[in-house]
Amino acid sequence: MRFRMQGLGLAAAMGVFISWSQATPAAAAIASTNTTNDATTVTYAFQYSTPGTWYRVFIDNDRNAGTGFPTAGIGANFMLENGTLFRHVGPGWNWATVGAVTYSNGGVSTASWVFSRSSIGETNCTSETADVVFQVGGSGGQDTSARLVHSYIPCASKLINDRTLNNPSIQGNVGYRIQYSSSTWSQFQVFIDTDRSASTGYGMGGIGANYLVENATLFRHTGASSSWTWTQVTPVSFSHANNVVNWSVPRGAMGETASNESADIVYRVQSSSANAALPKRTHIYFGGTSQPPAATAGTIVPLYTYPTDASWSAIASAKRERPSVAVMAIVNPASGPGTTVDSNYTIGINNLRAAGIKVLGYVATGYAARSEATVQMEMDRWRSFYPGVEGVFFDEMSNVAGQENYYRRQDTYARSKGFNFTVGNPGTDTRASYVGVVNTIIVYESAGTAPLPTWYTGHARENFAVIPYRVPSLNAAYVATARQSVGFIYMTNDDLPNPWDSLPSYFPALLTELAR
């Protein structure tokens, strides 16, 4: 799009592999996910909207996709399945039992595991990381999460075992939880950055907090970034006992009611003489405030027009009229960020963000042939020239086996620069080994609409997007079918040589269809 301007439960059958690509629930089964630890144990948990017969966590403790069992962009050296920890011995689906772990499942549709750090070789008290993938499955299909990075809390931290999960037992609420190891604290706080922009809200811990939960009250930030100025919103459910603090907060009170929303959060505790905080983490809501979540979809728009073009105001207007639909816009000043700042792009990007649109910056990768230094230099320029850009669009993405790590390194670099979303574009079908390498992969960029491969249904819909062109009018039937396996859908009546230099007149109707 480069234009100028597996698996059967081990408890049932060791070593047997079958495909679950036939069917999955209309909505992704996996909801909120959580990875945390203390000095000696690891805790993993996820919520689900559709029950399965087995629940898994794949763990890549060396963060090397070339070793272990390949799944969702990682190489799993260990796997939790229900109440057992397994070690991958290969080849293929071949695992050895390590031992039993503490496992629970139920209550609020939550599967959780607690096990020793030493059992997976993660014993460094100051610096440990692992890639993690969650999975739930049964006779009707499976759902696999995207890759998550578990950055271990240092052993010396006064705060341990943080957890952030949706709370379906209290309709439309989100639950926050922390545990502390010592000291007497009087204030327990959760800073919440609902727009995931460090430039808005109260600046602390690498986020811009729009909301604060302090003890039993939710507050909204009303002052400058450095100003401790808060307005009370509502009382919240709060409990504190045995060094564990729990909150339950209405999502609607923070404006976080749509499906697939996310927020950056920081936990902090204070006394009259000391404080302690955890590094920022990102909470993904997945479902909306009604349960179970509907099969809603969003859109990714290649906005390859100049900011003064009417298409920029049109996309912003359509988004404001349909705020529940996730809209992302790819901007592209010069097949990338260019070499100087264009003030019209600065203004245009800020206007898009004000309308609730996530803005992605274009970077070409030459199907993994472009030098990584050049790709990363362009990411640096996007961050420097246009701070309002929130994510990166990697065009010309390879789908060749063996080049996954090239894109994994670019994704890691993007996140190190503060970008929170990445999209890759091979423009055609990809391999399962690429799923999870970036947030979303565009798997169809061609003229007209066409059936999609069935294997996508074995993964969360948010992993995939389609952008057909030469579609004369809104194809509602295609949207209804595609949204069952694809999380982001765009279409246009425009055509080659550049189908992305206009916005279709039916774009507002497309958003209406996606909101159904």
Choose one word for the global shape: globular
Mean pLDDT: 83
Placed side by side, the strands forming the largest sheet appear as: 27-28-29-30-31-32-33-34
Instruction: Output the CATH homologous superfamily of the largest domain.
Output: Aldolase class I
Uncertain runs are: 2-28, 166-171, 287-295
Major sheet attributes: 8 strands, parallel
Main CATH class of the largest domain: Alpha Beta
Judged by helices, strands and strand pairing, the structural class is mainly beta
Cα-atom Rg, whole angstroms? Answer: 22 Å
Q: Under CATH, the topology of the largest domain is which?
A: TIM Barrel
What number of structural domains do the residues give?
3
How many DSSP H or I helices? 6
Helical amount:
10-25%
Secondary structure tally: strands: 34
CATH architecture of the largest domain: Alpha-Beta Barrel
Write the layout of secondary structure elements.
Layout: E1 30-37, E2 41-48, E3 54-60, E4 69-71, E5 74-76, E6 78-81, E7 84-88, E8 95-100, E9 102-106, E10 110-116, E11 129-138, E12 141-144, E13 148-151, E14 159-167, E15 173-180, E16 187-193, E17 202-204, E18 207-209, E19 211-214, E20 217-221, E21 230-235, E22 237-241, E23 244-250, E24 262-270, E25 275-277, E26 281-284, E27 299-302, H1 310-321, E28 327-331, H2 343-354, E29 358-364, H3 372-385, E30 391-395, H4 404-416, E31 421-425, E32 440-444, E33 464-466, H5 476-482, E34 488-489, H6 507-514
Parallel strand pairs: 27-28, 28-29, 29-30, 30-31, 31-32, 32-33, 33-34
Antiparallel strand pairs: 1-2, 2-10, 3-6, 3-11, 4-5, 6-7, 7-8, 9-10, 11-12, 11-13, 14-15, 15-23, 16-19, 16-24, 17-18, 19-20, 20-21, 22-23, 24-25, 24-26
